[in-house]
Amino acid sequence: MSIAPTKPEDVAKAFADAWNRHDAHGLADLFTEDANFVNVVGMWWKNRNEIEGAHRATHDTIFRNSRLEGRVSSVVALAADIASVHYTWTLTGASAPDGSRAGPREGILLLIVQNGQPAWRIKVAQNTDIVPGMIAPPGAAKP
Amino acid sequence: MSIAPTKPEDVAKAFADAWNRHDAHGLADLFTEDANFVNVVGMWWKNRNEIEGAHRATHDTIFRNSRLEGRVSSVVALAADIASVHYTWTLTGASAPDGSRAGPREGILLLIVQNGQPAWRIKVAQNTDIVPGMIAPPGAAKP
Fold first, then answer.
1. What is the mean pLDDT of residues B3-20?
2. CA–CA separation, B90 vs B102, rounded Å?
3. pLDDT exceeds 60 at position A22
4. CB contact under 8 A, A96 and B139
């Protein structure tokens, strides 16, 4: 286990640490019980148990040897006990579903964190991959 | 112009209305001046002017004849004057960059909205497309 996050930005670092330990329980423990998390392909997990199960499944397989690194690009206080954190990440060492090695990927993880006193926890998360040079996907215009 | 949103969920409806009028100014006016918006390919607009410019550029081109429809799937109060809104959307009528017609696409737009009294405005937005049947993109495993 890691130290409980006592600042909004610590939550992003704790997320990456749990990812790199491949610790689905520790990762899920960073979320509130009723958290919503939309991942990069639009899967929507609606509570802590779903978040833990999904990460256990991927960290037993495609993300088993992956490493997530990044930096906190923005922290904005939205209310006394609510903040947004943007974490800009690079993922290396992942596998494709067929077991071959996947290339590095980059993205932006948005965390809306809540001060649960003492620990800040993630109440809402949404992840989006960065497709350089695009304003919308090729051949598939999107907002 | 449309009526100012007086409830969190009204902001999502006003976003779709402005989109369908192809009204970049009206769309941007739904955001706070200092809003952050990460789009589906990881472009990160960091204020209202950037949001307006980006939407003007796309609504003059690939989204000129597009139509955004959807529904508010979740509204969660995060603080007295802060809420999260998940808007699940379908986009039709968009063009690909080469001018050919693009197929319909689906996604989830997360809006963190703030009560500016009287109008609720978007402080943080992040959009992700739904890739059915995927837990991560094929051949490009991502968190």
1. 94
2. 13
3. yes
4. yes
The string of pLDDT tens digits covering residues A52-105 is: 999 999 999 999 999 999 999 999 999 999 999 999 999 999 998 888 999 999
Q: What is the pTM of this model?
A: 0.93
The total number of structural domains that make up chain A = 1
Provide, as residue numbers in chain B, all residues whose Cβ is less than 8 Å from the Cβ of A97: 138-139, 141
| Phi, psi angles (nearest 5°) of residue A43 | -70, 135
Q: What is the CATH number of the domain that holds B30?
A: 3.10.450.50
Which has the closest alpha carbon to A58: A92, A95, A28?
Answer: A95
B76 interaction partners in chain A (CB closer than 8 Å): 36, 123-124
Nearest-CA residue of chain A relative to B39?
A143
What local confidence, expressed as pLDDT, does residue A139 receive?
A: 46
B127 touches chain A (CB under 8 A): yes
How far are the Cα atoms of A40, B41, B42 from residue A132, in angstroms, in the given order? 15, 8, 8
Average pLDDT over residues A33-46: 96
Using the beta-carbon criterion (under 8 Å), do A129 and B142 form an inter-chain contact?
yes
- Domain membership of residue B39 as a residue range: 8-95+102-129
Interface of A with B in 39-78 (CB under 8 A): 39-44, 54, 57-58, 62-63, 66, 68, 74, 76, 78
Rounded to whole angstroms, the Cα distance separating A96 from A83 reads: 34
